Amino acid sequence: MPRRGGRRKKSRTQEAVDDRPKVAAAAPAKGKGAGKATPPPQAADRGEKAIPRSMIVRRGNTSKHVAELLLELRKVMAPHTALKLREKATNTLKDFVHAAQPLGVSHLLMLAQRETQVNLRIARLPAGPTLALKILAFELARTVRAAQKRPFDTTAAYATAPLVVLNNFGADEAAPHVKLLRVTFEAMFAPIDVSTVKLADCRRVVLVERDPATDVLELRHYAIRASASGVSKTVKRVVEAKGKTPDLSKLRDISEYVRGLARPANDDAYGSDSEAENDAKVVLAGKYAGRSNVKHRESAIKLAELGPRLTMKLYKVQRGVCDGDVLYHAFAGDRATAGADLSKQPTSRGFRGDDDDDESGGDADDDDDDESGEEVDDDDDDDEDDSDGDADDEGAAAPPRPSPPPATKKRRRGGRGK
What we know:
Elements: E1 3-4, E2 7-8, H1 46-49, E3 54-59, H2 64-76, H3 93-103, E4 107-114, E5 117-124, E6 130-139, H4 141-146, E7 163-167, H5 176-188, E8 204-210, E9 216-228, H6 233-239, H7 254-258, E10 280-283, E11 298-305, E12 309-318, E13 326-329, H8 332-337, H9 355-360, H10 363-392
Parallel strand pairs: 3-4, 7-8
Antiparallel strand pairs: 1-2, 4-5, 5-6, 6-12, 8-9, 9-11, 9-12, 10-11, 12-13
């Protein structure tokens, strides 16, 4: 490079060769549809559009156990729910409703905590109704797994929607709020067509049982397992072994292991001999998950609990989305005795339940007022009797009231003397 003025001057530059294929840039959209958002993929398919989709959010401050329960409820509702949704403290109800409309979300589930009380609200979008349930007790999935001898866990089961089984929800003669509960739980999960459903897609089941006496709901989450039937345990352990086989190095012949005359060294890794043998046995209509579960072969069906466990009770139903007229209230009897009208009660626009206040109602206040009124009247009568008796006594005089202490004057320091 030649020098000029003490500095090198660049006289020639080699042009860089771009070997990448050139892609024509897309022309900007023109017309009425310019600038509109792309519709979701389920909008084009009628079958996908009919599948209910949910959004589970947390409202307010909650403990770490309630936050973990929120994540597990999303797994129960998988795959038709927002698993990685992150809500902010500044988000309002309108934000979720507006975001759910273009995504095709049909149900909005909200978890809220008030001190030791946890509430779950299920809202049907976009116009309601809203069911408010009080969670009486819950157990997380890790607690359920810790109590099991051989816990079952699989990620493939969450790729398909679970089946829903309802028990003791009555028929046509059931109460209106019970019918609404049944319809809501049925509409939250994907519908099943028996003629077209695939057996391999039935991997999980959600059981909801209602106690007719107390209206308490019990929710359980299970995984469906199938294993070959009519096969001895020793052979089943060899067939269903996943990367592990029994150690037969100390046996003279395999017949000793099959007939149960001897046990391998690592036999403890394949379960004990106390496994249940009274499982339901069915003939499979198609291939199912697991080895030896082929078509037209008898298999034993088992249920393995995944968790979580929920114990809930419905206490309020509103016409709109967390707003509107109160259609049902579990403590309506207390309000009726207090002379209140449910249709004129102020509606709750928040997310935290006030069932404790509703349960107490106005009866306690009325009883306190009545009792206090009776006591005041009795005291007045007693005072009048005492005053009459004092007037009739001879020379009886009321004790003199103590006179207040005389006020003392404080002397100022440094003041002028008289």
